[in-house]
Write a structure and sequence with these properties.
The chain is of the alpha/beta class and 322 residues long. It contains eleven helices and eleven strands. Strand 2, helix 2 and strand 3 form a beta-alpha-beta unit.
């Protein structure tokens, strides 16, 4: 499966729900509510969709996103259904980890290999101000539970926002190194609640790395592979090793290597994170799977995938899944 610029599509990011307990300053607009959860794709529909993409079209990597995927009561069943598809080589999940402490073991047993955990601050008061939830201790417990469950690698995702957490970059690296986790710093994108303030709030990869000069002794670039992040093995001045990544969609766009398609929790097709949805797969899945109709809709969506992402996003991150 390819888009109109011959970029192969190997990576599905699948939102399971728009619901999320957090109201992160950069993600969820004030007053925004997720849509009716009765219309979310069922376990059977998700299995049919992923199986079709994997067996017919070469998708090899699936990431479960939200909102917050652990808000789905049937999440373990979803993981089990996808994990049984032989062609899926990498099954991962992005989570805020608020519910992970009590679900990590079951999810790992079901076939979830690894998790990315959002962590924008190590200060409980600041964490609550950023996320709208007094939940830092629960996130920390979630990280420990994921490790005990055997998930690896565990990656911490930090969206860097000026005036919010840019002064914690070094502390976050030190924490990640101590926990044996990789950390990835994500540039703020011009979409969502902070879109109008983007120029004032944006912190580039160059500035982020410059804030680590006194902490990092040497940087060794790692193979990018199919990842969106530029990843480094960093030797810290105290001798420890940190895995540091940068997702720099604004200062260093990686559109030419984009191999992904996003599907929302109600079947919406997002060829590009910052663009409008391009139809839906739901009519091809409900009431029964129509492979011909599904292929038609996928083809139309991929034909609208832009060569580069728009300058400003139009969607709500918590509904798209990032």
């Amino acid at each position: 499966m390819q888009d109109r610029y011959s970029r192969p599509i190997r990576y599905l990011r699948l939102s399971l729900t728009g619901a999320c307990a957090m109201r992160c300053t950069y993600c969820r607009p004030f007053g925004w509510h997720s849509q009716d959860r009765d219309d979310e794709l069922t376990v059977g529909e998700i299995q049919a969709l992923v199986e079709h993409l994997a067996t017919r079209h070469g998708v090899r990597k699936v990431r479960l996103t939200g909102g917050e995927p652990t808000n789905r009561d049937d999440l373990v069943r979803i993981v089990q259904a996808i994990a049984k598809i032989d062609q899926v080589e990498d099954l991962a999940m992005t989570t805020n980890a608020l519910n992970l402490e009590h679900r990590a073991k079951a999810l790992a047993s079901a076939g979830l290999r690894r998790v990315n955990i959002s962590l924008d601050s190590l200060d409980p008061v600041r964490f609550a101000a950023i996320t709208g939830v007094d939940g830092l201790s629960r996130v920390m417990s979630g990280i420990q539970s994921a490790r005990r469950a055997g998930m690896a690698p565990i990656r911490l995702n930090t969206v860097v926002v000026r005036g919010q957490n840019e002064d914690e970059i070094g502390e976050l690296v030190t924490f990640a190194a101590g926990e044996g986790c990789a950390i990835r710093f994500i540039e703020l994108m011009p979409m969502g609640p902070l879109a109008a303030q983007w120029k004032q709030r944006f912190v580039s990869q160059e500035e982020i790395s410059s804030r680590l000069r006194s902490l990092v002794k040497t940087w060794t670039r790692e193979s990018r592979g199919g990842e969106s992040a530029l990843s480094y093995r960093a030797e810290l001045v105290d001798g420890r090793i940190a895995k540091i990544g940068f997702i720099s969609a604004m200062s260093c766009p990686f559109c030419s290597q984009c191999d992904r398609i996003r599907i929302g929790s109600r079947g919406e097709l997002y060829p590009c994170l910052l663009d409008h949805p391009a139809g839906s797969v739901l009519p091809a899945l409900r009431p029964v799977l129509s492979r011909t109709e599904l292929d038609r809709r996928l083809g139309e969506a991929l034909n609208s995938k832009p060569l580069e992402h728009p300058a400003v996003g139009v969607g709500v991150m918590t509904a798209i899944g990032g």
